[in-house]
């Protein structure tokens, strides 16, 4: 029997938590193991109930989402985090991604996208609301450090297998999909993805796709 994905919800609006609970209950692979109305003791609660994915509002009383993410980093917690926010500010998005968030959802579309977001993050990928993807693109394409690097040298360092995986990532294939298509393990796929991110100096699969599209590395 497949293990269920354990989810903890954190938001200071009970109505939003109730709405997400109703949606998540429709998926038999999900188990909501707890919820919080503020950030106080949130890290401890998540550690105690074995949460796999924390869906968390960025603005909460007692302790906000940024503080929680920093505490996760300090304590080395591996729980994945999907940030909820009413804002699509580029600076905020960049900050939470830098702190290790695996996803970013605007509250306006949380209800309809929450299941896809959790599935994607559980598969080891990152998830962003469609309404903020343009802002994510700008963050990566305006990365001055990446622009300063020798692009031709970077591209020439990409192996045939990495290029194959890069194309599949660009087709929105999950780590599991790629492992089955190429007959390799999910861990091997993840290793290639991390190596590509390091080579191209990007921080997510979104950044990989942007680089590939910009430099015509994606097959038609």
Automatic annotation (TrEMBL):
The UniProt record lists the keyword Transcription: yes
Could you tell me which SUPFAM superfamilies the record lists for this protein?
A: C-terminal effector domain of the bipartite response regulators, CheY-like
Q: Which SMART domains match?
A: HTH_LUXR (SM00421), REC (SM00448)
Instruction: Give one GO term, molecular function aspect.
Output: DNA binding
Does this entry carry the keyword Repeat?
no
Instruction: Fetch the Pfam families from UniProt.
Output: GerE, Response_reg
Q: Which residues carry this modification: 4-aspartylphosphate?
A: 57
Name its GO BP terms in alphabetical order: phosphorelay signal transduction system; regulation of DNA-templated transcription
Where's the HTH luxR-type domain?
151-216
Q: Which residues form the Response regulatory domain?
A: 6-122
Q: Which Gene3D superfamilies match?
A: 3.40.50.2300
- Record field: transmembrane: none
**Which InterPro entries does the record match to this protein?**
CheY-like_superfamily (IPR011006), NreC/VraR/RcsB-like_REC (IPR058245), Sig_transdc_resp-reg_C-effctor (IPR016032), Sig_transdc_resp-reg_receiver (IPR001789), Tscrpt_reg_LuxR_C (IPR000792), WalR-like (IPR039420)
Q: Could you name the domain of life of the organism this protein comes from?
A: Bacteria
**Keywords assigned by UniProt?**
DNA-binding, Phosphoprotein, Transcription, Transcription regulation
PANTHER family noted in UniProt: NITRATE_NITRITE RESPONSE REGULATOR PROTEIN NARP, TWO-COMPONENT RESPONSE REGULATOR
Q: What is this protein called?
A: Response regulator transcription factor
Identify the species of origin: Flavobacterium humi
């Amino acid at each position: 029997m497949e293990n269920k994905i354990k989810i903890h919800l954190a938001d200071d609006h009970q109505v939003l938590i109730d709405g997400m609970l109703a949606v998540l209950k429709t998926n038999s692979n999900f188990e909501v193991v707890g919820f919080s109305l503020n950030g106080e003791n949130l890290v401890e609660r998540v550690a105690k109930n074995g949460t796999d994915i924390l869906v968390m509002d960025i603005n909460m009383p007692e302790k906000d989402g940024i503080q929680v993410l920093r505490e996760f980093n300090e304590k080395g917690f591996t729980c994945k985090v999907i940030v909820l926010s009413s804002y699509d500010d580029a600076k905020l998005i960049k900050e939470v991604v830098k702190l290790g968030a695996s996803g970013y959802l605007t509250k306006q579309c949380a209800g309809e996208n929450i299941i896809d977001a959790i599935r994607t993050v559980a598969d080891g990928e990152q998830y962003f609301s469609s309404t903020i993807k343009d802002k994510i693109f700008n963050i990566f394409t305006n990365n001055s450090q990446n622009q300063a690097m020798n692009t031709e040298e970077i591209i020439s360092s990409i192996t045939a297998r990495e290029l194959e995986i890069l194309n599949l990532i660009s087709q929105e294939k999950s780590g599991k999909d790629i492992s089955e298509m190429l007959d390799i393990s999910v861990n091997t796929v993840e290793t290639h993805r991390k190596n590509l991110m390091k080579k191209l100096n990007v921080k997510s699969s979104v950044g990989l796709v942007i680089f590939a599209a910009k430099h015509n590395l994606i097959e038609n």
